[in-house]
Design goal:
By secondary structure, this protein is an all-alpha fold. Helices cover about 65% and strands about 0% of the residues.
Length: about 170
């Protein structure tokens, strides 16, 4: 493939067509036309399981994921970026990490999601991926549209392989 976008299109096309490889104990799913359709119609638990299986440090190390997060978060709309930051803060607070402490620790420009820059939200997401991967996966399960902004072919391939296996029983 010449570009990451072409590679992503190929992976998403493969997902739309399905894969004949069966995953043991895979639940029966609806026919999903593409990743956007999957993101809109799948349940949070389905997405959480899929992302839990595919977004692991042994497959995508933080050093590789962090630049991808910066690129992806820079592309999303400001209100969506606010939602992502707010969700990370909410989940991290449940672990005893206050938004003000995170602001200092991560050198964020603000602890208010609406005042945060794309770089701030990227730092917050990278922190969650590295230190609290379960929170990172939970937030992605709530905001699956973020995945389509990741441009790295390896990331798309890993997600594509996991999704194709998981969604394969539609045929």
């Amino acid at each position: 493939m010449a570009t990451s976008d072409e590679y992503k299109r190929e992976i998403m096309g493969d997902l739309a067509r399905g894969d004949r490889e069966m995953m043991p104990n895979a639940p029966q799913t609806d026919d999903y036309q593409n990743f956007d359709d999957f993101a809109q119609r799948s349940t949070r638990d389905e997405r959480k399981r899929l992302f839990g299986e595919s977004l692991q440090h042994d497959r995508i190390p933080p050093a590789q994921m962090e630049p991808e997060l910066r690129k992806a978060i820079a592309q999303i709309k400001p209100d969506e970026r606010d939602d992502v930051a707010q969700e990370f803060f909410k989940e991290l607070k449940k672990r005893g990490l206050s938004d003000r402490d995170l602001e200092k620790q991560l050198a964020l420009s603000s602890h208010h999601p609406k005042k945060m820059s794309a770089d701030d939200v990227s730092k917050l997401a990278a922190f969650a991926y590295h230190a609290h991967p379960d929170i990172f996966r939970d937030v992605l399960a709530d905001k699956p549209w973020m995945m389509k902004f990741l441009s790295n072919p390896l990331v798309a391939a890993i997600l594509g392989i996991a999704a194709a296996k998981w969604l394969s029983n539609r045929k």
